[in-house]
Specification:
The chain is α+β, with helices and mostly antiparallel strands. Helices cover about 15% and strands about 20% of the residues. It has 5 helices and 15 strands. It has a 7-stranded mixed sheet with strand order 5-6-7-8-9-10-11, with helices on one face. Strands 12-13-14-15 form a 4-stranded antiparallel sheet, with no helix packed on it. Strands 1-4 form a two-stranded antiparallel sheet. The chain starts with 15 loop residues before the first strand and ends in a 13-residue tail after the last strand. About 40% of the residues are buried.
Length: about 230
């Protein structure tokens, strides 16, 4: 829960604010760019929501904040924002929200597929929260968990146990140490099934890998980020 007494001076006056526990993960700025900005080493509110849609996006950011650094001075009903996750991105790809501090706010995704096509896939791990787990269960659970690299695994073990899912990770990132069921080795791409191609991309970590889905969606882990303020 954000602390009003520790509200950052860079916030504009109004209901929403960010406190000094912000770790600059960028989640709020990506989810609600009309409300949150990068003012240097942390995020802050530069524009208070003026419409229901802007308030909804700000509440989604509040719910997703890995450190609980976003707060409001009035009692908003955040239930709709909580229940909006997993949030549709495109086609059958969903953003899980509920980012984890242990993953420095990294994003995770759910791909829904019929059992005949291999079942649902979770890419990297969000926080293991009751509301999100219930929604994922209603959407068919998780059959496979694809982990890009060791920084973004968060609560992978809890999700694997809950849904009986097989985890896949590169051996060079200590997959065996984490109890991962299937270890990828070497630098050659691996065809997981007709939908997914696993592509080892060492660099960020020794065992970093990206996942190409239907030759249309590339899940890149920590390879790509964009700062509007810094234009880089």
């Amino acid at each position: 829960m954000a602390n009003p007494a520790k509200r950052l001076a860079e916030n504009v006056p109004g209901d929403f604010f960010v406190d000094d526990s912000c770790i600059d993960c960028d989640a709020c700025r990506q989810i609600a760019p009309k409300t949150f900005r990068d003012h240097g080493d942390q995020s802050s509110v530069f524009h208070q929501p003026e419409s229901e849609s802007e308030a909804f996006k700000a509440l989604q950011a509040l719910v997703s904040c890995p450190t609980g650094s976003i707060g409001t001075s009035r009692n908003y009903n955040s239930r709709e924002a909580v229940e909006s996750f997993p949030y549709p991105v495109a086609e059958n790809v969903y953003f899980c929200g509920f980012t984890s501090e242990s993953s420095f706010g990294a994003w995770s995704y759910l791909i829904t597929r019929p059992a005949s096509s291999g079942g649902n896939v979770l890419i990297d791990s969000p926080r293991f929260t009751r509301q999100l787990v219930k929604k994922i269960e209603e959407m068919g659970g998780v059959k496979t968990i694809l982990l890009t690299h060791r920084d973004d695994i968060a609560d992978h073990e809890k999700f694997a146990v809950k849904f009986g899912a097989e985890r896949i990770m590169h051996a060079a990132d200590g997959a065996a140490r984490y109890g991962v069921e299937r270890n990828i080795e070497g630098a050659d791409p691996v065809q997981l099934d007709s939908d997914f191609l696993i592509i080892p991309t060492p660099g960020h970590t020794r065992g970093h890998q990206v996942f190409l889905y239907r030759n249309s969606f590339l899940f890149t882990g920590d390879h790509l980020a964009w700062s509007p303020k810094r234009s880089r």
